[in-house]
Write a structure and sequence with these properties.
The chain has 2 domains: 19-138 and 309-362, 3-Layer(aba) Sandwich (D-Maltodextrin-Binding Protein, domain 2); 140-306 and 375-417, D-Maltodextrin-Binding Protein, domain 2, CATH 3.40.190.10. The protein is built from 19 helices and 11 strands. The protein has helices at residues 7-21, 35-51, 64-75, 90-97, 110-113, 118-123, 146-152, 162-174, 188-201, 204-210, 221-234, 248-256, 269-276, 323-330, 333-341, 359-370, 378-381, 384-399, 404-417; strands spanning 23-30, 55-62, 83-86, 125-126, 129-130, 132-145, 262-266, 288-291, 306-315, 346-347, 374-376. Strands 1, 2, 3, 6, 7, 8, 9, 10 and 11 form a 9-stranded mixed beta sheet that branches. It has a two-stranded antiparallel sheet with strand order 4-5. Helix 9 packs across helix 11 (221-234), helix 9 (188-201) packs across helix 18 and helix 12 packs across helix 13.
């Protein structure tokens, strides 16, 4: 007869077994725009941990600036996270070339990949290898305060072309209303205008070609024209007083407080203009509208193309074996529908857009699904050095410190030095 283990021995065996399978998956993320973003991640982590005893999902958060400055050092260290937030694009490609990422192509089965919108998986793939899992998309449109446009006698629905928009800006300004709110301090909100004009004028193929130096690269005539069109806007002095000293959060609050008619921003403006407004209420949903960025006469880009981001998680080399399992769980249909119902972002899983409760965000999601092409933010698409030069050029165009030709040359110089 075999001897029975004592209760103490059984407890020790159980403890050792649990310890053997104990594992922490470390995720580094930017700080979500709204509190419910953190709560969503915390709830998803708890659900995963409950289904996988002994596993801990650890989220660490940094603000955007700290994240960008600290990440390169972290990725080269032994304390690198298992996965980290990404805006994809050129910076992601540089990280892959540096050898700090893990190719997870073999861990993503065809059934999982079929659930994702094509733009999502494409954004996480480089040179035929997939290094991460997409989480959501963002799309930039022109948002407006219906009370202010009505007061000025402007119907945003009639704005179809860039010239239409410039005319509307003049009318709104003549009515004593600030036409546009922008957070110029960060530069990238100004680059939304410059980037969208490049997308409309240069077009998708032209942008790809310029990034390799074809046809004069970023100093070509069409890039110069994009800068000139942006200059036509800035010459109207459409922005609020002190716009270059206004950060994006402050700008969102000003827009939410009804201090300007338009703001060119991502779909996340719906929640953030409310959060950052003085009252905490912002513009009421029935008073907040949006229109697609207008077409530009003679432009090579498709006027139905959208502009924005595809964000997700990149997996680092030597990451925990459970990292991909966790990421696949995080973007399953149930979690994507939950994030959509919270209005956090535009979900990347097919068939989940209908869960978005806000009609504005849902409308942006529908535009995105219908778009022939979704152009990634140019400061992300071009990589850190060229992207920074483009943002600088946009800011200098807005302040009148450079002309369109000099701005284009500045970006091209950065490309050649890359």
């Amino acid at each position: 007869m075999k001897p029975m283990l004592s209760c103490a021995a059984l407890a020790l065996v159980s403890l050792l077994a649990t310890s053997a399978f104990a594992e922490t998956v470390k995720i580094l993320s930017i700080e979500p725009n709204v509190t419910s973003g953190r709560e969503f991640y915390a709830d998803a982590a708890k659900a995963f941990e409950a289904a996988n005893p002994g596993v801990t999902i650890q989220f660490d958060y940094l603000d955007d600036t700290s994240f960008k400055s600290k990440l390169p050092t972290l990725l080269q260290s032994s304390t690198r996270p298992d996965a980290f937030y990404t805006w994809t694009g050129g910076v992601f490609h540089e990280q892959a070339d540096a050898g700090v990422l893990k190719d997870i192509s073999g861990e993503l089965d065809s059934e999982f990949k079929a659930t994702l919108a094509p733009i999502g998986l494409d954004a996480m793939t480089y040179k035929g290898k997939t290094y991460g899992v997409p989480m959501y998309a963002a799309s930039v449109t022109l948002w407006y305060n219906k009370d202010l446009t009505d007061k000025a006698g402007v119907d945003p629905a009639k704005i179809k072309t860039w010239d239409d928009f410039l005319s509307a800006v003049k009318v709104i300004k003549a009515a004593g209303i600030t036409p546009i709110i922008v957070g110029g301090k960060g530069k990238w909100p100004l680059a939304f205008y410059y980037g969208y004009l490049i997308t409309r004028i240069v077009g998708t193929d032209g942008i790809v070609a310029a990034n390799t130096g074809v046809g004069g690269g970023f100093a070509s005539d069409n890039f110069v024209r994009a800068g000139a069109e942006f200059k036509r806007l800035t010459d109207l002095q459409p922005f609020q007083s002190g716009f270059m000293d206004t950060d994006n959060n402050k700008a969102l609050g000003l827009f939410g407080d009804g201090k300007g008619a338009f703001e060119l921003m991502g779909n996340f403006i719906v929640g953030t203009q409310r959060k950052n407004s003085t009252s905490g209420q912002g513009i009421a949903p029935d008073k907040l509208g949006f229109i697609p960025f207008p077409a530009v006469a003679g432009g090579r880009g498709n006027a139905a193309d959208t502009f924005g981001g595809v964000n997700g998680w990149l997996v680092t080399k030597n990451a925990s074996p459970l990292t991909v399992k966790w990421l696949k769980f995080l973007v399953n249909k149930e979690n994507q529908e939950k994030s959509a119902s919270l209005g956090l972002w535009l979900p990347i899983v097919k068939g989940t857009q209908s869960a978005i409760p806000d009609p504005g965000i849902r409308g942006v999601a529908e535009l995105l699904t219908q778009a022939p092409h979704h152009q990634l933010y140019l400061d992300q698409a071009f990589g850190a050095s060229v992207g920074s030069a483009l943002n600088d050029a946009a800011a200098e165009l807005a302040t009148g410190d450079v002309d369109a030709k000099s701005a284009a040359a500045k970006v091209e110089d950065a490309r050649q030095l890359r």
